[in-house]
Write a structure and sequence with these properties.
Blueprint lengths: L4 E2 L5 E2 L8 H24 L10 H24 L24 E3 L9 E3 L5 E5 L5 H8 L6 E10 L2 E10 L12 H5 L17 E6 L3 E6 L4 E13 L7 E4 L2 E2 L1 E2 L11 H7 L43 E8 L2 E4 L4 E5 L5 E6 L6 E5 L10 E3 L2 E4 L9 E6 L2 E9 L9
Parallel strand pairs: 16-22
Antiparallel strand pairs: 1-2, 3-12, 4-5, 5-9, 6-7, 6-10, 8-9, 10-11, 10-13, 14-15, 14-17, 17-20, 18-21, 19-20, 21-22
Helix pairs in contact: 1-2
Length: 413
């Protein structure tokens, strides 16, 4: 077996056709890890990347940046001569789809609010807050009134993992120089948030202030195993549509909170599985920091440049070859004469995209018989009349082919 090299730029140099090489096994694991992470965080990550259109392009961005991060981490271990066994612990487990890695869940140019987790003192998320006034907090983190803070945690409760979100707006009716204690600006003496008339979602089970920090737990409580905060800000421009800016946010982990769920490679392979049907939310969670809260769904680039798609991102054809006939898949569904035996999809930069298919959307996933940067092909299928073939990309539904008896539908548009 020849040497396999994981490059620090995220690419893999393959010098062997053995499908069980370290690099190829790692590649399959990482794609599955990131797809499942997106499924967990889709309510915010389908629109959390500044300058990228919400929906499919944000999903692709999430896949790209997180695959790059995980590959670079693996390459770093290799370069240090360390085993990758510890890396396989980040395989998705059956515990409610959660895969423990420091996922990048937003990207932008706004100031970051850094979060830590107190693994020894109750497993709560912590944010430093030097001083006790609203002005102290705003100045410490470079924020301004009207900014929205979206709190994100993964919490372990009763053996299962839950993603929880909460959002509050720094009260736009108070000046940034307010000298009032932060407890009264954000939380009043009864522990309640004075956030009337604003689009807040106050999903806190604990929010406690100390002398130089505050801690929080979301949802129904439990052990915080991952946490982060996204800052959002709506920019009003006379020359452009309203734009939403974001901060960078990479989750911090509390690995002590996972306990025995971190497992060996063999256990991870046995307990892992694929998800499907990643549906987009109709309302964008992060875009609610001002009245109306609709935001813009246009592709924007606040820092300059044009368009919201980076070079090298995947692009997909709106046509597919079904039984050798080209058909439009832009509408998400299409018919074909039974039996459906072959399906070929195309595009560019598709090396890292996971393609699968399922008959009637259930049962075992069918992998492509061939896959490269320009597309993927499924052959040897036998989808009979009255059944359908659901094709997925990156873990989410792409389009559905309904097989019909001869004369029941057209193969052409």
């Amino acid at each position: 077996m020849k040497t396999i090299v994981l490059k620090t730029d995220g690419t893999v140099s393959r010098r062997s056709k053995n499908p069980k090489t370290t690099a190829q096994t790692l590649q399959r694991i990482l794609v599955k890890v990131v797809a499942l992470a997106y499924a967990m965080f889709k309510a915010i990550c389908n629109h959390s990347f500044e300058g990228v259109t919400p929906g499919a392009k944000s999903s692709n961005k999430f896949m790209k940046v997180n695959l790059m991060y995980l590959r670079q981490r693996a390459a770093s271990l290799q370069n240090l001569g360390q085993s990758l066994n510890q890396f396989y612990q980040f395989m998705p487990l059956e515990s409610n789809n959660w895969s423990p890695f420091a996922a990048i869940i937003s990207d932008g140019h706004l100031p970051e609010v850094h979060v830590s987790i107190d693994a020894a003192g109750g497993h709560k998320a912590i944010v430093n807050s030097p001083g006790r006034t609203y002005a102290d907090f705003v100045n410490a983190w470079g924020l301004q009134r009207g900014d929205q803070l979206t709190f994100v945690t993964v919490q372990k409760r009763d053996g299962k993992y839950e993603v929880n979100n909460a959002r509050i707006v720094l009260n736009p009716r108070n000046a940034d120089s307010s000298g009032a204690p932060m407890t009264t600006e954000i939380v009043n003496s009864q522990g309640e948030f004075p956030c009337s008339n604003w689009k807040n979602q106050l999903n806190f089970s604990a929010f406690d202030f100390d002398t130089d920090h505050f801690s929080f737990v979301l949802g129904r409580g439990g052990t915080v195993v991952a946490a982060g905060i996204i800052v959002s800000r709506k920019s009003h421009s006379k020359n452009k549509d309203d734009m939403w800016f974001r901060s960078n946010c990479q989750l911090v982990l509390n690995e002590a909170g996972f306990g025995d769920d971190l497992c060996s490679l063999a256990e991870a392979m046995e307990r892992s599985y694929m998800t499907s049907d990643i549906d987009l939310e109709s309302e964008y969670y992060l875009n609610n920091a001002s009245q109306g809260g609709n935001g813009s769904t246009a592709s924007i680039t606040p820092s300059g440049g044009s368009g919201g798609v980076e070079p090298g991102q995947p692009s997909y054809s709106t046509m597919a070859s079904i039984n050798g006939v080209q058909q439009s898949i832009a509408g998400g569904s299409v018919t074909a004469t039974a039996p459906v035996t072959t399906v070929a999809v195309g595009g560019s930069n598709l090396d890292d995209v996971t393609f699968t298919a399922k008959v009637d959307g259930t049962g075992d996933a069918i992998n492509p018989t061939s896959h490269n940067a320009n597309g993927a092909s499924f052959t040897g299928l036998n989808v009979e009349a009255g059944h359908s073939l659901v094709v997925y990309r990156g873990g989410s539904t792409w389009f559905t082919i309904t097989a019909q008896a001869s004369g029941g539908g057209s193969d052409m548009d």
